[in-house]
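Hello,

Our lab assistant flagged a job as stuck in the queue for most of the afternoon. It eventually completed. Since we weren't sure the result was trustworthy after the delay, we are filing this so someone can double-check. Below is the sequence as submitted and the structure that was eventually returned. Let us know if re-running is recommended.
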Amino acid sequence: MPSNAAYDRMFRTALLIRRVEEKIIEIYPADKIQSPVHLSIGQEAVSVGLCEALERQDLIFGTYRSHALYIACGGDLTQMFAELMGRIGGVSKGKAGSMHLTYPARGFMGSSAVVASHLPHAVGSALAAKLRGTNQVALCVFGDGSLEEGVAHETFNFAALRALPVLFVCENNTLAVHTSIRDRQAFSIQKMAELYGIPYARIDAGYDFMEVQRVAASCAASIRAGGGPQFLEIATYRAKEHVGTGEDFGFGYRDRAAYDAWCAKDPLITDQASVAAMIDAIDAEIAAAVVAAEASPAPGLDELLTDVI
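-- returned structure --
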């Protein structure tokens, strides 16, 4: 395996994400977590590579499955666990939960439980960046199911018309809950992007954070040079059920063979030397965050109507 600093840095972040998710699975049955969770296991490399390709001033927008994005951009673990637990120390005082994570201090402007609803937010921010001349890129990450929403197409059209600095990333795990993409989409994603005149690229090795970083950095450079929006499709794999902490191979809509094939290429599984070198420190960091989150009180009645517009 590569041993350069970039690989080690990204590997550690990816392993941190996975161990956080595995900690969530461990504590979820105790009902400490007061929020539904959509886990990122299997999809960590996408967020890690994307965030590595960004600059500090860039803006990030994600879906309800955004634990990986939150951590990859540098989000605070204690505040994340506190948010999932509904505690006042959470990033949104325990009011937002897993599906609406934000961390503006590191550019993560928000995530949404409503499919594709964050796309116009990302494009609006890209428009503001262009008008202000800030040289920011707006990263907009969404699942393949978002492409079936009308607002997505309105957003692509507007971004292309205005040549906005936005990187659209389709995190394609081929599933919308239990329905395969072949039963939902009569169109080619590549041809759809090209229809709007948006340059398209695809990464099949969505488990390879180094490749994701390389291609995303190239896309971001083109955007900063005035090339307008870019569309990047990344093939990935959702290891757990759509929502929750369990497995769903027994439901009959997918089989374990594809999962096993993905695992055989997953560096978090194949590179056990790096896992062994990093896991103890990572687990200690997570354990400390959980303890601190549990020590945070629940919000009182005085918080009921605060932050409400």
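-- support follow-up --
The delay was a queue issue, not a problem with the job. The result is valid. The chain has eleven helices and eight strands. The two ends are 51 Å apart (CA to CA).
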